[in-house]
Amino acid sequence: MLAYGLKRLLHVIPVAIGVSIVCFMLIHIAPGDPLAAILPSDASAELQAEMRSFYGLDKPLPVQYALWAWRALHGDLGVSIASGRPVLGEILSASINSIILAVAATMIGFTFGAVLGFLAGVFRGTWIDRIASAISMIGVSVPHYWLGMVLVIVFSVRLGWLPAMGGGPGGSDGKAVGWDYLRYLILPAITMSVIPMGIIARTIRSLVADILAQDFTQALAAKGLLTGQIMRHVIRNAAPTAISVMGLQLGYLLGGSILIETVFSWPGTGFLLNGAIFSRDLPVLQGTILVLAMFFVLVNLVVDVLQSAIDPRIQRS
Amino acid sequence: MTAITADIVAVPRIIRSPGFWHGVIRRLSRDPVALVALCIVIALIAIAILAPYLAPYDPAKTSVIRRLKPIGTPGYLLGTDELGRDMLSRLIYGARLSLVMGVIPVPIAFIIGSTIGIIAGYAGGIVNTLIMRTVDVFYAFPSVLLAVALSGALGSGLTNALVSLTVVFIPQIARVAESVTTQVRRLDYVDAARASGANAPTIIVVHVLSNVLGPIFVFATSLISVSMILASGLSFLGLGVRPPDAEWGLMLNSLRTAIYVNPYVAALPGVMIFVTSICFNLFSDGLRTAMDVKS
Amino acid sequence: MTDYLHRSMGDLDPRDRGGPAQPLVSVQGLVKHFPVKSSGLFQPRKVVRAVDSINFEILKGETLGVVGESGCGKSTTARLLMQLVKPDKGEVLFDGETVGGAISLGDYRRQVQMVFQDSYASLNPRLTIEESVSFGPRVHGVPAQTAIARAHDLLHRVGLEPNRFAGRYPHELSGGQRQRVNIARALALEPRLVILDEAVSALDKSVEAQVLNLLLDLKRDFGLTYLFISHDLNVVRFMCDRVMVMYLGKVAEIGSRDAIFERTKHPYSAALLASMPSMDPQARALEPPLVGDPPSPIDPPSGCRFHTRCKFAEDICAQIVPPLAAISQAQSAACLMSMPRSGHSHAPVHGDL
């Protein structure tokens, strides 16, 4: 397993380098002088010249990339134009909120998706299956940012049960444990959970149906084993795939949280990204995307290795 | 006896079986869900094309006194938005940009992505490695993040949004195209074609395309739903079309502040995105079943 | 238009160059190693020695059978001959001309065709039968109408009524019918050599017999030469003039059918023959003549590759690679026991070389 992990790591390194090149190029595909993108528009000519040589903008692109990558490796992602603070610090404080949201959403989505998919797989072809299929179809087709708005309309505007936006009683600042804070998490987490729910339900449905159709479960049934024992077999065989799908969904949610965080003003990386886009704060945009993409690459790696640890037959070449 | 038979078949008439696509259409025509979904999609496209004839008002005409009228207001069937523009007219006109933004990237990505993937799959070896490692880099971004990153860097606007979305879908389609082509390339009929002296382009056109385009096409149709949501999402973030253009995602964004005043009107553009997205998804599912493609 | 359909046996093939004495195909030192994915990170790359330096000839008008256990290199040999995979070493002479040299690959492929084992996988499911059969000629510039007409003639010839079958798709046909289509497709280019790679192995026994008889008829009518690959020794005995026995990428023995089936000189051939089911209850073997699976072609045994399973094996067998040597005019074997003064205790003592 260690060897497999190392092998996967070797595969991941070129991808990670490629991802960093794409992120690096973001500043360069932006219209206008890249310097204008990393400096406030009212910067003095002196500062401009200083920054130009500091960032190596007078050097060829590969050198610029090397400089940028070297600094990024050491945690220097530049300075936010809007706030003047280091980009990495902003990202780190925002990512805690994003992780809380994504983990909560994945847990909710996985629980409901797994139950739905399991029932649909066991009762394949019945009305339960059809309802489960319809729910997962809605789950993958609904524009979740709109769903968030609808939930806000129902539970905040109409019923007044839950807050419509923010990360806690102090608006977008401060974190603590307790109902006061949890209230703010409920709507965004439920909204977000719809994305993985449909996918997990579909995956588990086909897994369960496949396993039930296989010879060994048929043989178990023929041997007169109880349904409970057969179900244990099903769960044991479906678990590795289900867990890996869950892991990947967690990665997707973290990377793709921008829409939901915007709807709920949830103070995570997506919200940070949205602000950066709005104020054309390209260092923050670039840094956040780099961190999120790298995190996604890492999640992929961890999921692969974990999956092969659970079931050594599954090894992606 | 034989002589008689010979007489009867004197005029040879070749029995022709219906082709593959014939069968697909026949199976699809027996799938009520897919048909209804297709009809709604066609209706939406018709609405988009005929918008000037269907919309009761100019979608850009604002009015300070008519702001945020509720659904059912006489003369304004679906109410008005935060600038007093007629919602029905804006939703009808919104179909134009929303469908263009949501649908167009997929066929473009389909053409580019299948070309890349089929070449990689058929060539194999080092060509495959080079192409697919590059594709992997783009595939390593979650779709939403990549679309936002590219649009965010390029700036808002219809063209930039279309470019971003196309770039998001190319690697996904290329991956599917590469994997089905690699499977087909290993089959004996491709070897048989090589053995009869055909060159690579001929084999790709006659033997590979006819067998790989189906699965790639099905996958691409399933992406339209994702593309609709992503495209409107970009507009929702202010990265798609710019105001005052009518586009469902953008409308949703500008009506966000109105949820306290007139929540139902504010939710309407999302209903349109949802309906369009689910219809494309249902049709794609029907097509998948009709073509018997494994997901 | 269809002169080749009506050519009788006595006529000389205008494409014949070297006369009947010159072998149609001469294979010299053919080698193909496939790289395998290394299991560990820093382990050296390994190769499967699928075909490891083999020599043989296919005579004009004969049927040469190739037998051996699965993994012995039969199919790789076929694909190498068909130039579907590039050999690492060695060359193929076709009627005296080097393939890829004096005779171009394109010309060669018109004269050599192949029928695969899997009748379904070897037909494009999206093409009708007539499209599949006429594809080869059309590639070589035959006009569509002519190619279709030729395809109909051939379908008729292989026993499929064109009116009923030409417009159909492969999945609508039975396995035997599909294999007839594959034969027609192979014949569409008027080849001189047809490679039959387990062409009847997947068919029901009754259908298999019909197809074998069809193959014999076609061979006679079109003056064909066959390379007949099969694991079924009964079928090989029925079809072939000469037989080649392969073991782990090497030729173990080659010779006339009677020599191989009656007077084999290689213990592997003998074991294969002994494992044939016998109709005579008295003659049935009580012990399996071959035990276990063949060793991996990734790390083949040293010396004679069969020594790990050979009941006559001695120390010398693990050290010396026995060359394929002529025993009589009709037979060659690669075994130290038939090599004079090889050091094996069963080796003939006479023979003055």
TrEMBL record, chain B:
Membrane topology: Multi-pass membrane protein
GO CC terms of this entry: plasma membrane
Gene3D superfamilies assigned: MetI-like
Domain of life: Bacteria
Location of this chain's protein in the cell: Cell membrane
Keywords from the named record: Cell membrane, Membrane, Transmembrane, Transmembrane helix, Transport
InterPro entries: BP-dependent_transpt_permease (IPR050366), MetI-like (IPR000515), MetI-like_sf (IPR035906), OppC_N (IPR025966)
Span of domain ABC transmembrane type-1: 95-284
TM stretches of this protein: 33-55, 97-125, 137-158, 216-239, 260-283
A Pfam family recorded for this sequence: OppC_N
Keyword field contains Transport: yes
GO biological process, one term: transmembrane transport
Record has ATP-binding as a keyword: no
Homology family: Belongs to the binding-protein-dependent transport system permease family.
Protein name, as recorded: Peptide/nickel transport system permease protein
Organism per entry: Phyllobacterium myrsinacearum
TrEMBL record, chain C:
Biased composition regions of type Basic and acidic residues, renumbered to the chain: 1-18
One BP term from GO: peptide transport
Compartments where located: Cell inner membrane
PROSITE patterns, alphabetized: ABC_TRANSPORTER_1, ABC_TRANSPORTER_2
Domain of life: Bacteria
EC numbers on record: 7.4.2.10
Molecular function in Gene Ontology: ATP binding; ATP hydrolysis activity
Region (Disordered): 1-20
GO-annotated cellular components: plasma membrane
Gene3D superfamilies with a match to the protein in the record: P-loop containing nucleotide triphosphate hydrolases
Free-text function comment from the UniProt entry: Part of the ABC transporter complex GsiABCD involved in glutathione import. Responsible for energy coupling to the transport system.
Name used for this protein in its record: Glutathione import ATP-binding protein GsiA
UniProt organism field: Phyllobacterium myrsinacearum
Source species taxonomy: Bacteria, Pseudomonadati, Pseudomonadota, Alphaproteobacteria, Hyphomicrobiales
